[in-house]
Give the backbone structure.
Amino acid sequence: MNNTTEDKLKEIAIEEYDNLVEQVSPKRPLVKDCIWAFVVGGLICLLAQIIQNYLVLRGLTTVDAGSATAVIMIFLAALATGLGIYDELGKRAGAGSIVPITGFANAIVASAMEFKREGYIFGVGARIFSVAGPTLVFGFAVSMLIGLIKFFIAS
Amino acid sequence: MGTNKKRGMQSIAFTNPPVITSWASIVGPKEGEGPWQKDFDWVLDDYLYGEDTWERAETKLLRETVKLAINKASLETKDVEVLLAGDLLNQTITSNYAARELQIPFLGVYGACSTMAESLLLSAMLVDGDFYARVIGAACSHHYTAERQFRFPVEQGVQSAPTSQWTATAAGAVIVEKLGIGSYITCATVGKVIDMGQANMADMGTAMAPAAVHTIKQHFADMDRPTDYYDLIVTGDLASYGRDIAEQLFIKEGIVPKPNYSDCGVLLYDESQKVNAGGSGCGCSAAMLCGPLLKMMADGQINKLLFVATGALMSPTTIFQGETIPGIAHAIAIEN
């Protein structure tokens, strides 16, 4: 009996506190963040499109040019990460620089750089996907799922 | 069963108040660009401090700060009887390695960002309890070791929340002696772990503010002191939003801290330094105490200081498991 009353009081206190936190906490500058994300994300995609168009122009098929573009974009993001540019961009652009494939490259290279000091096996090898891992796992899972759906619908 | 030092529920009064005879602080480049540059003993121009890993740099930072505090008192390491130190890293490795090199008998402490208060409080107890005559208390944090343990790789492009705080690269050390010249540690309040159900790792001020207010309220009740007794009450690292919440809670509890209340997390950096809500880490309150605050006490600008370092006792593991962030705060009264 005593316990439940105490629990209730604690619950009320926490609720009151949550309200206070809600009042005081700053709101994220959503509009500004969205504009940054849209512009930076858009520019990254524009750059990729220019590369892809150029490759098509030079004789690659659209599919091959797409793969080659992905490789080039990953290289550029890895380079920018190594030079310490990409994290500065990410601080402002948020999702705009995380969602494109360049963000994925950044997550992997940043982890590799961070854990190099623990050696190549227990550091780089073991921790390289510490941030990007979930993307891979769920990317694979969804790919398999879609593969299965296609298999059954096609047959 | 009572003792002659215990006061009220959670406090103690030192019957032979220990003396702070020497102190030192070393801070990183960013902290040196803040408003207190000339009040710290040394500002590093490089986060690696001539070492090849962040962890070694942090160890050196703590070790050199302890040495500096000892040198400033014209003593040698062998003259100090015991070292109490802590940091933010798993297994408190920074302190362990620093103690390995210092060869002072060592007790490791952990109170997250409240560590400076904890090591100082225990140092004062050991001295007043007549176990030792000269003890050194210290705490340390490094921005990049904390980032990689608690958050993301340094080069990862992530957007930080406006409530997030910047872990300070800083260390502070204080020599507490039975006899000597300096400010006295007169009383202290050991805090309870308070958890108000906050679980946002990017908003630790909110998780710690209730603990800070609880400890301060208990301190005034236990010591039977008026709430305007102190020239300055300074919390550890609530930062700007945590401080705002603490001020609201103070009013609710009938304590009017203004204008004598501030927070080390708010004070350590300039607003232009892009640290979002402010500073955090053991080094934040440690360096503010062992730099500007004790200096102001020595100059007589402040005569009665209540130092309330705050800690978010957080582990990413348990947060991911759905736990909330427990907070703690210890109060120490330093008087001339």
Observations:
- The mean pLDDT of chain B is 94.
